[in-house]
Q: What sequence folds into this?
């Protein structure tokens, strides 16, 4: 299952805000009927609640994203270092942990101490590629 798209995250966030908007509108109507608020003030109250939710969305977006990936899939793209030659299997250290690895399809031989990047995952085995050389600026 792929991770949530930005659109589905926005829809999920909006759906969770609807009860708050309904309560704000109900409170505005009650306050209007009791003569505490004018119609315009009640409408501004509801608009302010909606504007607050719109302003908070960028900060809260990640809380509404679904995370269907497993822990090992989150390693894709991370750097590591080969601990032993990957011929065809060996171990690499990624985030301080040793993982069984093999070179990804078309990747050259990887020797101990060589930096790698996790390209994919197959089961509990990492498929790695040699990391591109760093340029010093």
A:
């Amino acid at each position: 299952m792929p991770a949530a798209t930005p659109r589905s995250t926005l829809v999920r966030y909006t759906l969770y805000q609807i009860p708050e908007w309904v309560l704000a509108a109900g409170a505005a109507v009650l306050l209007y009927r009791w003569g505490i608020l004018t119609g315009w003030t009640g409408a501004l109250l509801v608009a302010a609640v909606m504007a607050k939710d719109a302003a908070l969305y960028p900060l809260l977006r990640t809380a509404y994203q679904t995370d269907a990936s497993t822990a090992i899939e989150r390693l894709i793209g991370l750097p590591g270092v080969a601990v032993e030659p990957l011929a065809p299997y060996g171990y690499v250290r990624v985030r301080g942990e040793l993982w069984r690895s093999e070179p990804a399809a078309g990747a050259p031989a990887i020797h101990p101490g060589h930096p790698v990047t996790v390209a994919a995952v197959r089961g509990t085995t990492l498929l790695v590629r040699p990391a591109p050389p760093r340029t010093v600026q």
Observations:
- The chain has two helices and five strands.
- Helices lie at 6-33, 39-60.
